[in-house]
Design brief:
CATH superfamily of chain A: Electron Transport, Fmn-binding Protein, Chain A
Largest sheet of chain A: 10 strands, antiparallel
Number of helices of chain A: 5
CATH topology of chain A: Pnp Oxidase, Chain A
Number of strands of chain A: 11
InterPro entries (chains A, B): Pyridox_Oxase-rel, Split_barrel_FMN-bd
CATH class of chain A: Mainly Beta
Order of helices and strands of chain A: EHEEEHEEEHHHEEEE
Protein name (chains A, B): Flavin-nucleotide-binding protein
Pfam family, one (chains A, B): Pyridox_ox_2
Helix content of chain A: 10-25%
Strand content of chain A: 35-45%
Oligomer: homodimer
Structural class of chain A: alpha+beta
Number of domains of chain A: 1
Largest interface: A-B, 96 and 97 residues
Distance between the termini of chain A: 25 Å
CATH architecture of chain A: Roll
Radius of gyration of chain A: 21 Å
Chain lengths: ~220, ~220
């Protein structure tokens, strides 16, 4: 794993060519965004056409992982083919004085590369445990133990974070100098992901206890 | 505009080929998801490689629109080229009794096609008004009036919703019959987008009033 403080060398593809001043390439920024938002949109090319599939990613060290049905279209089409995995978090609406400066506060990461499949069943099991425990610490050990068939039916792909970039926007609107005299309210409407009270499955056994760590779950 | 009750004829591409039981194709479902979530992930192919860019979409009738800098990479690369526009909303974590049945509650839409550019300045202005007023009704008329140069610098693309599909998952976990006897808590952790209190721009003029409709804004 490379030094976390070192920049992930931006290639021509990852170099953000619009709004360049919003781009950040340092690993800590990229890690923080990936860790805050498990939902990723994975883009790949299928018969020459782009497809964007939402999926759940998780990060370990300098790699990002996702899983799916071993026989699914996405897992087959993305194995060893170029993909773009994008994670984005909406932080707010930015209401400026001019429609042209309407914006959103956001954090996003794009990762490019050719995913590799994890094939060793023990490594797959270890990674799936990390995936599940990433949501609810200790959950893997509480669950009905995983079977060999389930591990076999689950494909896991991973990408190194070598070609990755982050883009962020925060703070108040930015209007043209002359527009600050225009008499209209401007500001930010903050948006965040909120977690509600856990809803127990009506089919739960009467004596099961909710994991205490569930109430600590946060996202975004 | 086709009858809203008629299904958007699914093509081979849009037919959801995994988890088919989650797929919905009726227009009202597709419209409701697009209207609830402006953030879209647009996938396109650039030099043979997939790129997924987050952007804001809005819907009018049976078309979806997005805008960007006229000279930006995304707007140029997606004009008259195949794209996949995906909108997804995370509704909750589904904690099952088996790791294999871990899931998320979600709503998503995928739209395929070749975007067309809106070129008429009057039509672009009308569409941008709809975009802005979609967030805060009446806002367009309050803002510093748009200039011809701003309209020129803004590209607008649109896709018909003819090749579109929706996918939904809601409700409690689904475990294998034999696993319901396993003594572990199962249930759903609901997640939603929450809107915070508006944050006025510190550079607001002293007498500007916040639009009352801002407090009614909701998303997701």
């Amino acid at each position: 794993m490379p030094d976390a403080a070192a920049p992930a060398s931006p290639s021509a593809r990852t170099r953000v060519n619009r709004y360049r001043w919003l781009a950040h390439y340092d690993r800590q920024t990229i890690y923080a965004i990936l860790d805050a938002m498990p939902v990723a949109h994975v883009g790949y090319v299928h018969d020459g056409n782009p497809i964007v599939t939402p999926t759940l990613q998780w990060r370990e060290g300098d790699r990002v992982y996702w899983h799916g049905a071993a026989h699914g279209r996405m897992m087959k089409a993305t194995h060893d083919a170029e993909v773009c995995l994008t994670v984005s978090i909406l932080d707010g609406l930015v209401l400026a004085r001019a429609a042209y400066n309407f914006n959103i506060n956001h954090r996003s990461v794009m990762v490019f590369g050719r995913p590799e499949a994890v094939t060793d069943p023990a490594e797959k099991t270890r990674l799936l445990k990390r995936f599940v425990d990433g949501y609810v610490p200790g959950q893997w050990e509480r669950l009905r133990p995983v079977t060999d068939q389930e591990i076999k039916a689950t494909a896991i792909l991973s990408l190194p974070l070598t070609e990755a970039s982050a883009k962020l926007r925060a703070g108040p609107p930015e209007d043209g100098d002359e527009d600050y005299a225009f008499p209209v309210w401007a500001g930010v409407l903050p948006i965040r992901l909120a977690v509600g009270a856990p809803e127990p499955d009506p089919r739960n056994l009467p004596d099961v206890e909710m994991p205490a760590s569930l109430t600590a779950f946060s996202i975004g």
